[in-house]
Design a protein that fits this description.
The chain is an alpha/beta fold. The chain has one domain: Glutaredoxin. The chain is 42% helix and 18% strand. The chain is globular.
């Protein structure tokens, strides 16, 4: 009887908890507006990356280092692969690169072109891509691997 109770309890706990505590939020149509509203009025760095993007994966540890150095950074990670990725794989990559403190999202809508269009109608989907959004809502886009020295300088300018 006791074994059965323990087995049921363990099964219930496994079902209640996600595989990773940092499971990304589902990025679908309308998420961009919600994200922008949630971060309105404060400088925010939004980094688009993907599990199928080699340069993105090489760059991720550098973002982890920046996040550790700069507790003031409001960093949002969006896994924007055109092919849906497992939330567990996205979460594991975020955790492996010490980015758990960053807000994490993952494209989940099959019509990823519409997601990209909501974000920026001129964006063709190339990864990695970083947006620096100041408190007034002005956006500076950085295509390709981000120059983190420029990101640091931008962060310092936001304090003035």
């Amino acid at each position: 009887m006791r074994r059965a109770f323990v087995a049921v309890l363990m099964a219930a706990l496994m079902l209640a908890a996600p595989a990773y505590a940092g499971t990304p939020q589902s990025f679908e149509r309308g998420s961009w507006a919600k994200l922008r509203a949630a971060h309105a009025g404060k400088p925010t760095v939004i980094h688009f990356w993907g599990l199928t993007c080699g340069p993105c994966l090489v760059e991720m540890p550098k973002w982890g280092k920046l996040l550790a150095e700069r507790p003031d950074i409001d960093l949002v990670l969006i896994a924007a692969d055109p092919v849906p990725q497992s939330p567990d794989e996205v979460a594991a990559t975020v955790a492996r690169n010490r980015l758990e403190r960053a807000e994490s999202w993952s494209f989940t809508d099959r019509f990823f072109e519409k997601l990209r269009y909501e974000i920026d109608p001129r964006w063709a989907g190339e990864l990695p891509r970083t947006l620096l959004i100041d408190a007034a809502g002005n956006i500076v886009a950085m295509n390709g691997v981000a120059d983190l020295a420029k990101v640091r300088t931008w962060l310092d300018q936001q304090k003035k």
